[in-house]
Amino acid sequence: xAQAESHPRKYxxxxxxxxxxxxxxxxxxxxxxxxxLRLNGMVHGKILxxxxxxxVIKSIDTSAAAKLPGVVAVTTSADFPDLQDKIAxxxxxxxxxxxxxxxxxxxxxxxxxxxxxxxxxxxxxxVAQEALSLIKVEYEPLPAVTWVLDAMKDDAPLLHDDVxxxxxxxxxxxxxxxxxHIHFEKGDVEDAFAGSDLVVEREFKTASVHQGYIEPHVSxxxxxxxxxxxxxxSTQGSFTARxxxxxxxxxxxxxxxxxxxxxxxxxxxxxxxxxxxVAAMLSRKCGxxxxxxxxxxxxxxxxxxxxxxxxxxxxxxTKDGKLTAGEAxxxxxxxxxPGGVIGxxxxxxxxxxxxxxxxxxGYDVLDNKPKTQAYRAxxxxxxxxxxxxVIDELAEKLGIDPIEFRxxxxxxxxxxxxxxxxxxxxxxxxxxxxxxxxxxWKSPLEGKNRGRGIASGYWFNIGLKSSAAANVNPxxxxxxxxxxxxxxxxxxxxxxQLAETLGITAEAVHPKVVDTDSVGxxxxxxxxxxxxxTGLAAYEVGRDILRQMCERAAILWECDAAEVExxxxxxxxxxxxxxxAELAGKLSQTGGPVVGRATVNPEGPTNGFGTHIVDVEVDPxxxxxxxxxxxxxxxxxxxxxxxxxxxxxxxxxxxGIGWALNEEYVFDGxxxxxxxxxxxxxMPTALDVPHIDTIIVEVxxxxxxxxxxxxxxxxxxxxxxxxxxxVYHATGVRMQELPMSPPKLWAAMQK
Amino acid sequence: MAKKTxxxxxxxxxxxxxxCEARQSLLEVLRDNLAMTxxxxxxxxxxxxxxxxxxxxxxVDSCLVLAVxxxxxxxxxVEGIADDSRLHPIQQCFLEEAALxxxxxxxxxxxxxxxxxxxxxxxxxxxxRFQLAGNLCRCTGYDKIIRAVQDAGKRMAAEARGASTTTNxxxxxxxxxxxx
Lengths: 751, 180
Known about the structure:
By secondary structure, chain A is α+β, with helices and mostly antiparallel strands. Chain A has 20 helices and 31 strands. An 8-stranded mixed β-sheet of chain A has the order 10-9-11-19-18-17-12-31. Chain B is α+β, with helices and mostly antiparallel strands.
């Protein structure tokens, strides 16, 4: 693997802020997002969804719907292959295909309100909607459960009779809503607690929240008469969408092409397929392209969310401020199918600190919510809310400044996490030092009902598989083909790394995100991996191009290729030199075009740490929390395009503020989501937040040639904890529940 | 099938006629009947602002306007913001200042910002936040959007001052000149 330079290096492209390559299309309305696609002969699909949170589906009669003029196809799960419990690796996590299939269209039982039951395709979306009302479904409603602790009870309504608790490699003997129990332990925990001068133990709970991307899920499928299936979709991973769709339909992946459209946000929620296989089945039945678009209430009721959680965290310390032991008990709901994000929650809960001894127990719990999905640092935000709240309370009780307390215990190179891995060079201490030196931390906060909070957070950031290829054009530009769908400007951050490698400008690289037939396998846009891993692929592509072009220069100069070197966009020998563009113009005389290519699969996390500071004011009469000032600090390794790094930090912080203050799934007595609209599910607006100041710390990642770490996910981890601490200093109340919405905070303030 | 209504309107300065069903929203007609997909559907109930267009100069959620209500109206969509050969200062500032990530909310923000800046090119941060509060963005945290709108206003005001010394400013710029 490539090694980072040990000394700071001057870059020409990296660290600059070019206009993104897809920018003009996106500000003029020309960019084609999934819902903007129009194909000749296209028809429109709609899904009938369960009105019950939990019910046996006794029968489905689609005959009247099929007869409605304009309806061209109807489908239910009966049309799909019967899938055994096959596990498919989707790159960032594995999935049980039988469960995935039953989530796409219910098999025998509806497990949450909004669970897909049947689908129709018709000549217009209105006709399709009308046809849904003609489908007769006979339900036998069952009791529902939507709170994780209720779902864990012995007498809780059981979602699946074939899910048995898996614990330490063993399977329980009777079915349970507890799908899995995870246990990590290091050191002698009891002994370490006994040797503590102070122990704080608190319980926490958080509500389910949604990723909230503005673009609803959308897919268009054409199952051609030759058997080839093409899917145009908004997805975080075109290759994983291809794999899931092929598996659910039991066709070879070579029979499926996924064309990624522009994607309007994902945050982890657009990895699993929902519409793709259904649109495909409807297209197979009617022989026409079928487009399916979800409405906003479908997005809330049937996709996402992130788990609700119940957590207990206990931490001990000595009076001079050294952590002695930690213990965490975490129960996260997984929604209707097993495989939530409890794993990373358990790995992250103590990930910021050096704990001599620690124990973590985690539970993956089924309940009648949509199958939970990843949401930006999945599982870490809840855990950090619990851990960081206790850390702050310990610091206060010990009379130690919260930054100093963290510095005394900060994870660093050589720290072993409770789940095993030992950190390489990481930049947590540097974010704390930057926080301490920040104008925000040094400025006193004045005024009544105001408080300041600080909290830190960690996310792994992954590597995984990326492929890229690039063609050298005769005018000295380069066309870059990549497989990473671009949600936040990664075309540009990847292109900049190729440009830096080749010694050309960012504008001289033309990046394109292409379909699954046009580039090598590439894992999802997730795990904060694209600028790191696809960027690494672009670097390798650049090296491949330079190697070939040195050979071409050697042909022109009639010398040995080893005598030619490439430096800063020039090729040279002792006495000759040529620019990249000059040589690009001569490729046809030296053997024809040059194409560079690379595939990479970097292993191990790149380890992103962040620390956030927030000032709030709490209205004593209404308990409304106003965010006055916010500073996000993060180790980016190396910020390729600083504006987009800042953007990730600002966007994550504001999502975290929403999670902290207002966002939650509200359920009625029957387990049905009661607030499935943007009006009632309250995401932050421009008026709810101040400017988010950013401080980018750069501790180069030793596993990347330019030092890149991922940046996308870490920024959502600290905010709820930081907000809770700020609210405490404003009100005297330590909130242990999210969201800290006015009714909840007001009630707590009255105690 | 419901009988269709004939509607005559002006979209981005061009006279435009279409047939629509009474139940169709302006957003649906723009996107599905007229293939102008720049206006986005994020919620279809007036909460996200991704479908914002100007109706006789006023920003409206086109998902909440029935297409038949557009009879005789002047409509501006995101497709009509740029000049023939160059981006509008708002669009240029959004790009230079990285005020978009996924970009799906961007058309709505640009249209709403234009309505604001045409009226007042030098709004305060609070005024911008207030005027844009009907447009949801989930990616950016709004920071760079607010700054881009503020800077675009300054650029528009400077251009208007420049235009006032010449005689060939576009009609839009003439309006801005009056607004200042």
